[in-house]
Amino acid sequence: MTYVIQLANWGIHNDGTHPKETTNGINNALIWAANEGFNTVVIPNGTYLIYGIGTNPNVICKNGIHVPSNMHLKLSGNTVLKIEPNGGFTYSVISVGNKENVKISGGKIAGDRNNHVYYLTQNMESGGIDNNGKPIADSTKIRTVGYFDQASQSDKFPVPRYYAEKSGITTTTFDAFYYDINNVYLGKQTSLAFNTGILSGYPAGTKKIKIVVNQPDPTHASIKIKNGLWMEDDFGYGIDIKYSKNVRIDNVELYDLTGDGLYVGVDGVTNGNPPSDNVVVNNCKIYNCRRQGISAVGVINSIIKKCEIYGTNGVSPQYGIDVESAKNENVTIAECYVHDNVGGGIHFYSGNHTTCFNNRVENNNLSVGYTDYCKIQNNTLISSSIVPIWLTDGGDPIDLIIQGNVVIDGNISIPNITRPSLIGNKIIRGQISFSGTRQGYSANNDIVADTASIDYGFKIFNNAVVHSVGDNIIGEFTNASVYSTGNSTSTVVFDNLSIKSHRQAIKTSGNETIFNNLFVDKEFVINTNTDEASLVGRVLFNGGVIKNLTKTWKAIGSTTNVRYTNVKIITSINVIYLWGSNAKMDVMDNIIEIPENHTSDIIRLDAASSGLLIGNKLIKKAGTTGKGIVTANSSALSKIWNNYLIGCTINNKTTDDVRNNIVF
Is 9 helix (H, G, I), strand (E, B) or coil? Predict the structure, then answer.
């Protein structure tokens, strides 16, 4: 059954006046309707000023409108519930506390961020205050003209120490005089220091305060204090859902809240109460809130879908959607448009088995903290990044899956977490990076740079352990398509890696970097720089095709150990070059062909470099100069066995071990 609230019967005003009467009237109407068996209550069109101030942030239900269990609260199309402008650090326009089977739909919910009283200011006048709390003449002192009135706040004063700003006051101490809500004097404290903390030890019942300062001149003197205990006034909520089950929020517009547009979960700590369960937030628009668009803090089996959230700004963390703290499990964020929030777009700070799919995120990041078994799938991020955040005080999210996303002008950055998987993503003008990652997996990702503005396409560093399968790197990177460095204790494996680049293809100073079936596409030359590939450490190439090099494939360094096995290289220049003391190169069972007239050598070892050059087929165009294998300038011993050379020869040292080579 549906009940349309009869405003006059309940003393409700829909003209933006009488907040306490209106709030009490709506709550009384909801209680009556529930008792009479109505399951849908409609608030007619109009603007309703709501009294929503609470005096304690750690309570289930603050003031405001309280929706009973088994109730659909329906706001008409032109209904606006607006919080009365206030100085409270906490308020709620609508609360759902420890309830079941609640639905809220339609209308608008407005906060007071533009009219909120964040600070109280008092000018100073000449005079002091006597021991009875009465003003007295005293030319050596100045006092506040009026009271700092904290009647709507808790019993603690953050004044005028920790959050005070003083102007025209030269002293560092003050005297505080305390009064109750009716201006009855309660006592004083003397010689208190500015900016040293929150006042304490004042009389019970204190609601107002006056300040006396020991200086004679009040000209341009004033004190401004934070209005309330909490520095940021960030507990003002549009809809506040705590410890509740089966709650649905549909098609509601929320804006200008001093805290969160919508808060769902628990009160920071569960205190034995269960998390909120089966909460659906659907097709809502949330914007210009100070702290968060939506906070999910202790929620299970819930979904946020088809919402637009933007413009969160004012006080940290300032995310569009933040799944944070407490227990969060089986939370899904789907088909939302999240953009232009100061702190970030979507953040999974804590929880497990969370899913984020088919969302559009612009000018914001998408990040993961202490969240296990999180799936980030099929999202589009523009001028954004997927940045899983590992927090160093103990968090180690495991089994993160990032799959099928499109990232434009942004990166996917994986830190030192366990078993992350990147599968089938497309990154345009960005990069994939792994730093210290444990058991990382990357497969079938496309990394595309259409301008030379990104340093590397695929970057692996800080002892990361990564296995790449079928990744494609295409375009103009300023340094190299692939960079593997600082991985001296790890193994980095690339299987079926495809590189299409006008610039340097591979740069590595790591250990155990392995390329199985490396494909460098013929449509692109590899480098216009001096060093085509700077290879340092242990690097292995096994299989694949490399075509159309424009610079030598160089391995340079005193500790270099490079192996080429079963690689086919077709190019027009000197192909493989090794230089360095104690450097080693194994070139085995490869086919290397230079089809054009060129004077370069195919394989060359210099300095103190040694090699195993075994079972290769080297082909040069007939009539060209240049050798097939040159080791004559190396002081180290090389083994040259069983090679098949067409159109080229071997220039070796007499001390080299040369066996069973065939030269045509």
Answer: helix
Whether residue 448 is contained in a domain is answered as no
User: Is residue 311, in this structure, part of any structural domain at all?
Assistant: no
344: left (phi over 0), alpha (psi -120 to 50) or beta: left
Query: pLDDT tens-digit profile of 486-530?
Result: 766 668 898 998 988 766 777 776 666 788 888 876 433 333 333
**359 contacts 386 by C-beta, under 8 angstroms:** no
Asked if the model's pLDDT at residue 55 lies above 60, the reply is no
Q: What total number of domains does the chain contain?
A: 1
Please report whether residue 643 resides in a domain.
no
**Token pair for 288:** 């210009």
* Whether the Cβ atoms of residue 591 and residue 565 lie closer than 8 Å to each other: no
664 SS3 class: coil
Question: Vertex 367, ends 365 and 373: CA angle to 5°?
Answer: 145
Question: Do 368 and 348 contact (CB within 8 A), yes or no?
Answer: yes
| Cβ-contact 589, 565 below 8 angstroms | yes
Residue 43: what are its φ and ψ, rounded to 5°?
-95, 120
* 101 occurs within a structural domain: no
Residue 181: domain span: 119-226
Residues 6+ apart with CB under 8 A from 392: none
Question: What CA–CA distance (Å, rounded) separates 155 from 160?
Answer: 14
